[in-house]
Amino acid sequence: MKAVIKPSTARGAVAAPASKSMGHRALICAGLSGGPCRVEGILPSEDMLATLDCLSALGVEYDWQGDTVTLRGGSPFTSPKEPVCCRESGSTLRFFVPLFLLGKQKVTLTGKGRLLERPLEVYQNLCRERTLLFGRDEDKLYVRGPFQPGLYTVPGDVSSQFVSGLLFALPLLEAGSVISITPPVESRPYIEMTRQIQKLFGVESVWTDENTLRVFGAQEYQPRDVRVEGDWSNAAFLEGFNLLGGAVQVENLIEDSLQGDKIYREYYKMLQNGCPTLDISQCPDLGPVLMALAAAGNGATLTGTRRLALKESDRAAAMAEELAKLGVACVVGEDTVTVPGGQLKAPQVPLDGHNDHRVVMALTLLLTRVGGEMEGAQAVAKSFPGFFDSIRSLGISVETREN
Q: 314 an active-site residue?
């Protein structure tokens, strides 16, 4: 899909979509409870559909009406016989590998795009240590349990999703386990989000020190109804218009949310006041929008950027490639990105969304200033399918059409 955007200014109020991160977690806990449970605030994004596909593979039945999903039935110890597709959702894949390792039969997982290229060595090593099956080829992943209680040591600097995956599965074993996280622990807020939603469903773990989690065994997820809070990660793109001369008020956000990406408001103030150095090791999803806004303003240096290479695209390289078309020459290092400020230029060729929802939304912000076209705009369906409708409601001139 191509997006054609004319210079325009965003003004008005708009609701942030429901949190994708909390949506995954709420659906999983509800599905593991056996239900019935109502989870409100779920958007029909590709990532939510991927998680529901995996829950269906565990025997969970669901009904989707409006923004509410009702779940019932299923068993976390089910081993699906057919391959299970996680689409392009890294969260889904990493959350469900430990759950599929609860069963005793071989489970085949597939994905789309770059999904199976993303790091999975943490689980591979855990399975090797326990003589469990973990095999992979170009387009498939194979696992077979059963997981046993014990000590699970995982690195903290690859992805917090591995810790969350273990947190979902280990409480269902007959005895307790310990998750020891080798520092530095990056994206710690996402671990806390998992623990928060688990506690709502009656499943608990405790920190015994800053890097060690004790997970109690023989727990059961209890059915309950929940509503998913607004998404600070996607709100960052909507409030980004305010740094481009807009006046946008984003609603449906909880100020005391555990979502780490809410730090964008602090970072935006720093971008407006100078050329700051911003550490994104705890909030890597903000990388593309911070690069875009730095390019449109005073510039910035981002640190802790190493994990941007492991997303739907190599986000630092993708953004640098597209910003060059806008007259901005970034320097991408191993764990840093330097973005000079300056005058944006209208692109002479269409921009490329790199099949990455956050790259598409970040580039959209810049095109509202200089105008232009972007290919691959359909990638927003991964997390924010209503993005273009939302910004149209704010006065942005954007036309989307199939190629």
A: no
